[in-house]
Design goal:
about 110 residues, mainly alpha, 434 Repressor (Amino-terminal Domain), two-stranded antiparallel sheet, DNA binding, XRE family transcriptional regulator, Lambda_DNA-bd_dom_sf
Length: about 110
């Protein structure tokens, strides 16, 4: 029996990792950028860019490499620390939303 994928284990420990894709999409939208423009500015391939976006519902099937993470932040015109902060903010919103749904189900 296979264990959990590495990305899933990482998200259990650090929930903000599951918010990478949504944080990136929000930043692209808020900055009025196109995705193609952000990808070009990052200097990485589309496949490398989208590799970190794979998965859904906060359960990524892969996580970006550290080099890709830094390149994506650069392509967005922000620091890696700002990208992490955006991911944490998204995780807090998701956690609060999940908590409110659980209360409503009771």
């Amino acid at each position: 029996m296979a264990g959990k994928p590495q990305a899933e284990k990482a998200v259990e420990r650090f929930p903000e990792l599951g918010c990478f894709a949504v944080a990136v999409r929000r930043i692209v939208y808020e900055k009025g950028m196109t995705l193609d423009n952000a990808i070009k500015k990052s200097g990485i391939s589309k496949s490398a860019w989208f590799a970190g976006m794979a998965g859904s519902g906060g359960k990524p099937s892969r996580l970006p490499s550290l080099a890709s993470f830094f390149a994506i932040a650069d392509g967005l015109g922000i620091t890696p620390e700002e990208l992490i902060a955006a991911m944490r903010k998204e995780a807090e919103v998701r956690e609060k939303s999940n908590g409110e749904r659980a209360e409503n189900d009771e």
